[in-house]
Task: inverse folding
């Protein structure tokens, strides 16, 4: 299951966060993840018939998060209609929570630009 990568490649460009320009169906991706990729004992899998693992669980959850959130108009598309099943907003490129991306940017933008060490070649 490469739901997260499908979303990322569909969201590359200047208008990456404009939901009107995404190249995937948000409801269908959620249905596939929730109905086809859940393991009965927990975790998510690549596709039906495969085994579960942490890698695919992580990326399925990331894909589910991005599929639920429409960045352009700030609305959430949740096929379960259950507020408890809405995922934390995940950045489609960095694959971490959007608020953490902002925190990292705020932190690192305050640091001085590192100077390169000058080395001499002989």
Result:
């Amino acid at each position: 299951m490469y739901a997260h990568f499908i979303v990322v490649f569909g969201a590359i460009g200047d208008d990456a966060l404009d939901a009107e320009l995404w190249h995937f169906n948000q409801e269908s991706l959620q249905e596939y993840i929730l109905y086809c990729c859940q393991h009965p004992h927990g975790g998510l899998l690549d596709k039906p018939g495969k085994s579960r693992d942490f890698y695919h669980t992580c990326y399925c959850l990331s894909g589910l998060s991005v599929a639920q959130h429409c960045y352009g108009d700030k609305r959430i598309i949740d096929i379960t209609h259950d507020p408890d099943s809405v995922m934390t907003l995940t950045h489609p490129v960095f694959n971490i929570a959007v608020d953490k991306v902002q925190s990292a940017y705020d932190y690192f933008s305050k640091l001085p630009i590192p100077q390169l060490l000058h080395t001499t070649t002989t």
In short: The first helix runs from residue 3 to 10.
